[in-house]
Each structure stands twice: as C-alpha cells, then as structure tokens.
Amino acid sequence: MVVAKVTYEEQRKQRLEENKKRMEELHLPLLAQALKNSSAPKTPPQKMKRSTPRIVKKEMVEVRRSNRIANNPAPEYREIVTYERFNSPRKYGIYRRRDLGNRVYASDKDRANAIMKAEELEVGLGSEFPTFVKPMLQSHVTGGFWLGLPSYFCRRNLPKRDETFTLIDEEGEEYPTVYLAGKAGLSGGWRGFSIEHGLVDGDALVFQLIRPTAFKVYIIRVNDSEEAEGDKIETLDA
User: Do 229 and 209 touch, CB atoms closer than 8 A?
Assistant: First the structure.
C-alpha cells in the first residue's frame, strides 16, 4: 500500500515537470504575462477643472415676505454673492464694405472717353519715366480690391520678387502697397488707396514709375468734364 502511494506521487511529480517543460517550450508563461499587462486598467484622463469666477462682494439681504406675516419675529436673510464679469473686447473695423448690389457701372462711351483723356495725359508726361494707363473695373474698386498690372510692363520694369511699392497721388501723399511679382499686381494697401480717392468703375489711372519701387498716380475721373481734364493737360505742358 505504501509502495503504491509513493509510486503515484512520483508519477504526479513527473507529469508536472513534463507539463512545465512543454509550457516553457511554447512560451506560455510569457504570453500569460503579456495578457495580464494588456488587461491592466488604464489611468482615467484627468478632468479639466473649471475656473471659478472671482467673488467681488457678498451682502446679506432680507427675503421678501408676505404682509400677512410681517409682524412675526426673526426675519429670514439670504446671502447674495456678486461675481466678477469678464467682457471680451470687440474690434470694429473702420471701413464698411460697399453694398455690392448697388454697383454703378460706367457706360461704354464714358469709359472710352476717360481712357482717351488718360492717354493724352500720358503723352504729356513725356518718355523720361515708364508709364501705362489702367482703366478701373468693379473688381479694382469694390469687393476683392485686386489691381492687376500689365504683364509686359512688369516684365520690363518691375522687380522679379515681391516688394513694397509706394503710390504717390497728385497731392504728394504717399500710400504703401504690396506688389506681388508672381501675380503681377498690387494687393495689400491698394484698397486703402482706392477708398481714400473714391475710385469708381470707369475711372482711368496713369501710372508713372518715377523710382524703382514708386509710382506717381494721376486719376482721370469718368464723370469729370472735358474742360477740367484739358486744364490738367495744359498744366503739365507748362
């Protein structure tokens, strides 16, 4: 009986050793540890604390009661807490966009007349500095305010990279603008010049390159009389 029991224990230990070796060969202990680590609970994300408004003042006020119990003693009081209120500053633009639905378009006759006067003015300027005439369209004076310049003029006379150009009006006032060489036009700053001078569809402008990055700008109004423009040309000739 004792021999049989000892034999059973030895066989059981032998089977345990064999099973352990098989598990190690199959890497089962490592897999069990990996599964245990993957199933470990993750740390929950921390909740953001809401900022508490700063208390400005506290005061005690008597709660309003009915007249029927006004003679009763011991009135009830309630604490009133006043918190600081934050007001975000608002930015207001100076310029109000024009109503694009009320655009006024120049007639073909008036437009051609303004261009003709601008070309006469251009001739009167002489050939000392490069010049070109630019008739105004709605896209130049409303909405996008983008002024494309003649490509041939840009290739011959203007820089090959973006530059800050100065527009000088007939009164000598200077307006900085941004010249985009890749697009051959004036962008930032042109809107301010257009609005300041009240340019409209049909006006014709004469640009005179008096410096490598500066234009003298002459404005021919589409609604100006022929006499007024004639006086301007005579003044230049003088």
Answer: no
